[in-house]
Write a sequence for this structure.
């Protein structure tokens, strides 16, 4: 049996600096957290850049390159660059990292959804913010669609292929599996497809074992054995759903992009803590974590 690939999503574009004092912001902090996750057992790190002064998600390719170069200079981990970017970025801004920095792996959002973050301030009982941009950034998602149209779904894989970058298809809902089938049938996407099931985002499928099973069964009916899959889940559902993913033979993603907590009442100080926890759970189940090179072989990535 292939070893399980553990991905660490380091900072994302959902959480804001006020939500956690430990959220990495600067290129140095993001790289440090990524290297720490690798040392804890992650084979892949998923990277978003941030403005080092304000912590706001950015599409600045110089900042993105700084983060990537810092990580590459220190370890052999697989770097998965975001093409989801930050909320409100154009598709051109989001995908520019691929031809510019040529990552081995990049996220590929498999369809459009309502992406709601507007409820977070009330849920977290936040009344004061470190930066002026944070509250408007969250509140604007009440009237926001995360656009990934068929036009962009056809365009992005072609850009990926030109750079030998593997798409990691982010699937938030079952209809997106049909989108991927369309892309495969039309020659825009090659198999085996790498699918990341993303559960628990407001506007998409809730995080439950039943929904994970449904997505997995749908993917199997759609692709047979010609796909590789992983699962991640938002907030407190992170560890339960990743544990279920391990039991079902899948790969898993943890990290502070998805969850700011290590356990109830205990904030995560780094993504490495979450990697170490899911790795311990995997070991108790007799499952070993893949190395970066083993992940490259499983996913069919170019070397290094």
């Amino acid at each position: 049996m292939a070893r399980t690939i553990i991905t660490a999503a380091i900072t994302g574009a959902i959480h804001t600096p006020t939500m956690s004092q430990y959220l990495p912001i600067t290129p140095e902090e993001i790289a440090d957290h990524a290297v720490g996750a690798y040392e804890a057992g992650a084979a892949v790190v998923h990277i978003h850049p941030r403005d080092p002064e304000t912590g706001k998600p950015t599409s600045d390719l110089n900042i993105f390159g700084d983060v990537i170069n810092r990580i590459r200079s220190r370890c052999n981990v697989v770097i998965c660059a975001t093409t989801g970017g930050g909320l409100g970025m154009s598709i051109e801004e989001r995908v520019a990292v691929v031809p510019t920095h040529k990552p081995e792996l990049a996220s590929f959002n498999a369809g459009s959804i309502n992406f709601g973050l507007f409820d977070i301030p009330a849920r977290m009982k936040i009344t004061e913010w470190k930066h002026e941009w944070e509250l408007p950034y969250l509140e604007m998602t009440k009237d926001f669609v995360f656009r990934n149209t068929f036009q962009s779904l056809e365009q992005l894989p072609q850009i990926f292929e030109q750079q030998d970058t593997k798409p990691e298809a982010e699937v938030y809902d079952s209809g997106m599996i049909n989108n991927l089938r369309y892309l495969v049938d039309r020659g825009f996407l090659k198999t085996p497809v790498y699918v990341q099931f993303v559960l628990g985002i407001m506007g998409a499928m809730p995080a439950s074992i039943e929904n994970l099973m449904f997505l997995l069964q749908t993917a199997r009916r759609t692709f047979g054995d010609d796909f590789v899959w992983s699962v991640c889940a938002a907030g407190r559902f992170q560890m339960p759903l990743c544990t279920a993913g391990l039991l079902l033979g899948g790969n898993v993603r943890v990290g502070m992009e998805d969850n700011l907590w290590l356990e109830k009442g205990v904030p995560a100080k780094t993504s490495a803590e979450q990697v170490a926890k899911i790795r311990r759970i995997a070991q108790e189940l007799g499952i070993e974590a893949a190395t970066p090179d083993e992940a490259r072989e499983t996913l069919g990535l170019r070397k290094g």
The two ends are 23 Å apart (CA to CA).
